[in-house]
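Our preliminary data section would be incomplete without showing what the modeling component actually yields. Below, a chain of 106 amino acids is followed by its predicted structure, encoded as tokens that our downstream tools consume directly.
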Amino acid sequence: MPYKLKFSTRAETQYQALVNGGAATTAKLKKVQRALALLEQNPRYPGLHSHQYENFPGAPKEKVWDSYVENKAPNAWRIFWTYGPNETVDGKETAVITVLAITPHP
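Predicted structure:
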């Protein structure tokens, strides 16, 4: 089942920085876009290596996951996300993934 992606303010700012970063960020942007597309289709896609993340800043009690964008140091990047909140439109529920951050590996 595909998910609808929503972005926190932080994640939107980080994504726009990649979009507006010019040639220096083009390769990273493509990798982020690919990972987001996979996440939207199947957060358990093996190449994402999605796993629960412990103690995400600002969301200590939520189940936060991280997925790989790239895993080769020093260029390792991650997408941090959580399930929900789902949306209901015209009586139909849509599953949502909220992207919390798109960032270099901490």
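The first strand starts at residue 4 and ends at 7. The mean pLDDT is 89. Preliminary results of this kind motivate Aim 1 of the renewal.
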